Amino acid sequence: MKKLLYITVNSKPENLSTSKTIGRALVNGFIRKHPDFSIEELDLYTEHIPRLEYQYFESRNCIINEEVTKQLPEKEQREVAKIVDLCNQFVSADVYVIASPMWSMSFPSPLKEYIDCIVQVNRTITFPEKGKKPEGLLNDRPRTVVYIQSSGGEIPWMLRPVFNKGLDYVEDIMKAMGISKFERLLVDGTGTTEEERLAAIEKAKEKIDDIIDKIQVEELVHI
User: Fold this and answer.
1) Residue 149 — left, alpha, or beta (φ > 0 → left; ψ -120 to 50 → alpha)?
2) Residue 32 has pLDDT above 50, yes or no
3) Calpha distance 89→77 (Å, rounded)
4) For the whole prediction, is pTM greater than 0.90?
5) In 3D, which of 147, 110, 191, 114 has the Cα closest to residue 26?
6) Neighbouring C-alpha atoms within 13 Å toward the C-beta of 144
7) CA atoms of 14 and 216, how far apart (whole Å)
8) Of the candidates 6, 42, 121, 175, which lies 20 to 30 Å from 21 by C-alpha distance?
9) Which value, in Å, is the radius of gyration of the alpha carbons in the chain?
10) 188: Cβ–Cβ under 8 A, 6 or more apart, which residues?
11) What separation in angstroms does the CA of 25 have from each of 10, 97, 99, 197?
12) Could you report the per-residue pLDDT of 84-120, keeping only the tens digit for each?
């Protein structure tokens, strides 16, 4: 069964989080159109995301092997296993929906810690030759990332390169891992009142069907 991995990055409950509200609406709409997909959810504020320690790696972005892992203290063995599990979960998905607020022209720190866990040699990237830039390994089948970002103000298009540094980073790192299809759903102008937030949510919901239509899905072949 094909899989959608829904990643949220906000400590607020869903009914108070703009990005989670839009994320849920998009995921529900996608599943209605593609009922053959399963959903896995990953809340980066409740899930334990290990910090990367030097002893977990044999070289740059390359996690230590199983035999070396067994030589670590038990707690550190669990940390290595968690990093591997997070990376394997990411690799197994076909569609990714990431819902995050804009914080300080970027995103909350748990998302960066998570990304550091999944960018792994021989799992999501490879260095084909010494001194050459890495190549992504996730171009083996159609995959799409949808990044949902909520922000308090209306960001003029000419200033988006300045304020959307976090969003641009996520797109760049996903493409570095080989996922070429990346869609943005910006929920701007959530404002300072509940009325402004709800208006921004309704405006963003109008874009959901178009985003879903752009998601690349590999059709199953029935013989």
Assistant:
1) beta
2) yes
3) 18
4) yes
5) 147
6) 15
7) 27
8) 175
9) 18
10) 150, 151, 153, 154, 155, 200
11) 16, 11, 11, 15
12) 999 999 999 999 999 999 998 889 999 999 999 999 9
Residue with tokens 């990237």, as numbered in its chain: 125
Q: How far apart are CA 8 and CA 39, in angstroms?
A: 13
Query: What φ, ψ does residue 183 adopt, rounded to 5°?
Result: -115, 140
Name the token pair of 143.
């995959």
Confidence of residue 63 (pLDDT cuts 50, 70, 90): confident
Please write the tens of the pLDDT for every residue from 6-21: 999 999 999 999 999 9
**Which two structure tokens, joined as six digits, stand for 169?**
């980073």
| Burial class, 70, CB count within 10 angstroms (exposed 0-12 / middle 13-18 / buried 19+) | exposed
Q: Which two tokens stand for residue 196?
A: 């402004």
For 48: left if phi > 0, alpha if psi spans -120 to 50, otherwise beta; the answer is beta
